[in-house]
Amino acid sequence: MPELPEVHALATDLGRRMGGRTVERMSVLAFPALKTFDPPVEALSGRQVTRVDRHGKFLDLVLEHPAGGTEDKADSSAGAPLHLILHLARAGWIRWRADVPKPVTKPGRSPIAARLVLDDGSGFDVTEAGTKKSLAIHVVRSPEEVPGIARLGPDPMADDFDEERFAAILATRGREQIKGVLRNQSVFAGIGNAYSDEILHTARMSPFAPASMPAEKVQVLFAALRSTLNDALERADGLAASELKSEKRSGMQVHGRTGEPCPVCGDTVRQVIYSDSTFQYCPTCQTGGKPLADRVLSRLLK
């Protein structure tokens, strides 16, 4: 799943490619992915992409009528900006196309969920792999109309997000496990499973540690959060969408590296399996050398 650094890079890349260009059409091929009906997708046609923003893990393409352009007076949204909001979920992605695309002959069998075409034929496809579909597309007048954006917590990379604010939030979470708190989008926007693993490894902290912790540990965790995300943002800066997945994987120290040696201490990276996800950690760096209980694995071994 793309998280804060990758979505930020996608927004930068799309803004560079699309800024000032006019949308010819937006087609949705996987209809369950479209979560809104008013304004209609057709209302995007003829609008210019003025900027591409990010809200947590959400991409936000802002589209307006060109200055002096003809507006449809019958369309109540004609005079105001529209927002094409994309949440790529676990298996969604953006594929940029430089040329006019070939028609999709079998939409039900194609990974393409939606297609945006600009006035010169370039544009992008929104794709989703696998059978579990959770990609979400919204066309709205304001980002806050999207429920997932309306309930987002603060962005941990915002200029006004400091250690004091971080400590105050953790204090309200009490005995909740820090791993779950970090990836809770209503608490911190943009951190997911992968970067929460990396942040905790950098902080040398157990994923099961309580969120409410002494000030010295808050300081260490906050520094780990900012350095981990800053490093990822710097690595992703300037990369095209096609390069971001491999860059994310190559930058991980423990996430997705079960069974490999920890690059810090050499111990074997372990994992804990849940019903719908896993996380990875280093016992020596994070849990005093003790493996964490893995209930799924324990049941398999009985």
Automatic annotation (TrEMBL):
InterPro entries on file: FPG_cat, FPG_N, H2TH_FPG, Ribosomal_uS13-like_H2TH, Znf_DNA_glyclase/AP_lyase
Ranges for domain FPG-type: 253-287
Entry keyword Plastid: no
Formamidopyrimidine-DNA glycosylase catalytic domain segment(s): 2-125
SUPFAM superfamilies referenced in this protein's UniProt entry, alphabetically: Glucocorticoid receptor-like (DNA-binding domain), N-terminal domain of MutM-like DNA repair proteins, S13-like H2TH domain
Catalytic activity from the UniProt record: Hydrolysis of DNA containing ring-opened 7-methylguanine residues, releasing 2,6-diamino-4-hydroxy-5-(N-methyl)formamidopyrimidine
Source species of the chain: Schumannella luteola
Any coiled-coil regions, as ranges: none
Protein family membership: Belongs to the FPG family.
Protein name: Formamidopyrimidine-DNA glycosylase
GO biological process assignments: base-excision repair
Keyword Amino-acid biosynthesis tagged: no
The EC number(s) this enzyme carries: 3.2.2.23, 4.2.99.18
GO terms for MF: 8-oxo-7,8-dihydroguanine DNA N-glycosylase activity; class I DNA-(apurinic or apyrimidinic site) endonuclease activity; damaged DNA binding; zinc ion binding
SMART domains: Fapy_DNA_glyco (SM00898), H2TH (SM01232)
Pfam families found in the cross-reference section: Fapy_DNA_glyco, H2TH
Organism ancestry: Bacteria, Bacillati, Actinomycetota, Actinomycetes, Micrococcales
Range of residues in the leader sequence: none
PROSITE patterns in the cross-refs: FPG_CAT (PS51068), ZF_FPG_2 (PS51066)
UniProt KW keywords: DNA damage, DNA repair, DNA-binding, Glycosidase, Hydrolase, Lyase, Metal-binding, Multifunctional enzyme, Zinc, Zinc-finger
